[in-house]
Amino acid sequence: MPLEGRFTPPGDKSISHRLILMSLLAGEEMLASGLSDCDDVRSSLAIFRALGGRAEPEAGGLRLTGLGGRWEPPEGLELQCNNSGTSIRLLMGLLAGRPGSYLLDGDLQLRRRPMERVAEPLRLMGAKIGTAGGKPPVSIEGQPLRGIEHRLSEASAQLKSAILLAGLQAEGTTTVIEPAHSRDHTERLIDYFGGHIEIDSLTISVSRSELSLPRRFAVPADPSSAAFFLVAASIIPKSRVTAQNLLLSKGRSGFLRVLDRMGAKVSLTMLGDTPEPTGDVTVQHDGPLSATEIAAEEVPSLIDEIPILALAATQARGRTVFHKVDELKVKETDRLMAIRHQLGALGARVNAEGDDLVIEGPTSFIIPESLDSGSDHRLAMTLAIALRAAGASVPISGQGSISVSYPSFGEDLASLWKG
Ligand code: S3P
């Protein structure tokens, strides 16, 4: 049964987090439309309010009023990030230089994720940060900060963003040098909100700045959510799906370039460019896909789409290699292992060779009695698409996790897949 139709995925999760958290640093009000209402962004919003920010729903969006210089949160504030790695890591940078003391915590999955990669450079800036054996809960006592020059150990937008947000409050210049380009939403927003930032390829410098909010901000749709249906269209004969008003920055659209290389028909209609490029994207099935190699430098631009791209690779002729994807081991779950086990349970030939993920296709799926997402939202959606593509229906455990990033996934699935 083909997928057909147009849809608008929820607002981009990465931009929604940044818009909410960065608006704390500014004094004005802004009407934010299209914010994601996923669980992760709800966590950032609850923290925004706990810190004293005002967020009032009104026609057309949410009116956010930041704190700017009026920063007076209660002492020893406990802030619950739940499952959201972006919330905790961005907040570590944002709070390190603010008055007050804070405890940032999360759920059991977040409590297994590494935080020292963020804490270490922030300590070099003068931050007082403690972790529990490198993991959450993270304690912060706000301190005056000084700028540093720091070469990032991994191409991580969360890590980069934490240092840049601390740099906005630090004495002198703060410079980060990335090993490869990761998503640049924080940089774009700092610039758009009038902060001092200079970018020279992989080197980004900021200095102490007051941010000031525009009156309105429209969040474009999330490409990482759209990817589930766009990739599904590439593997299911006769499918044609259009995702509307999608965020299309280079750091987020790697999966579209990979689909194009694999032989799907991908077409873009650009809509806007400031502060982020947006457009409508159509993916049409165009015969069987072919295998491809995904270079290590490309990985940050499609890091969250690897589970669904891995599914595409199981249907492609030949050997697809995702190079150097060891970062997947420290996502919501060990995603490298989860992809291998769950696509393996469907009969796919999926192996880890060192830090590479290697998939031999094409595979005719065999249907097990059940599948297990390990409560990883991106795996749960990938498995749901795999079963639909195979025309099968078996229980997938942990599907409730889908609301972490895409609460309306089931509705969009039903509207595009009418069969
Ligand atoms: C994100 C960055 C990525 C991504 C995550 C969201 C962000 O994580 O996997 O879902 O909004 O900055 P890393 O920075 O750890 O690669």
Produce the secondary structure layout.
Layout: E1 4-7, H1 13-23, E2 29-33, H2 39-50, E3 54-58, E4 61-65, E5 77-80, H3 85-96, E6 101-105, H4 116-124, E7 128-132, E8 135-141, E9 149-151, H5 157-167, E10 173-177, H6 185-192, E11 196-200, E12 203-207, E13 216-218, H7 223-235, E14 240-247, H8 254-262, E15 265-272, E16 278-284, E17 293-294, H9 306-314, E18 318-322, H10 335-345, E19 349-353, E20 356-361, E21 371-372, H11 377-389, E22 396-397, H12 409-416
Parallel strand pairs: 1-14, 2-13, 5-6, 9-10, 17-18, 21-22
Antiparallel strand pairs: 2-4, 3-4, 6-8, 7-8, 10-12, 11-12, 14-16, 15-16, 18-20, 19-20
Helix pairs in contact: 1-2, 1-3, 1-6, 3-5, 4-5, 7-11
The protein binds shikimate-3-phosphate.
Question: How would you characterize the overall build of this protein?
Answer:
The protein is of the alpha/beta class and 419 residues long. The protein folds into 2 domains: 194 residues, Enolpyruvate transferase domain (UDP-n-acetylglucosamine1-carboxyvinyl-transferase, Chain, Alpha-beta prism), CATH 3.65.10; 197 residues, Enolpyruvate transferase domain (UDP-n-acetylglucosamine1-carboxyvinyl-transferase, Chain). 30% of the residues lie in helices and 25% in strands. The chain has a 4-stranded mixed sheet. Helix 11 links the parallel strand 21 and strand 22. Helix 3 runs parallel beside helix 5. The longest helix has 13 residues. The chain is globular, with a radius of gyration of 21 Å. The site of shikimate-3-phosphate has 10 residues, from helix 5.
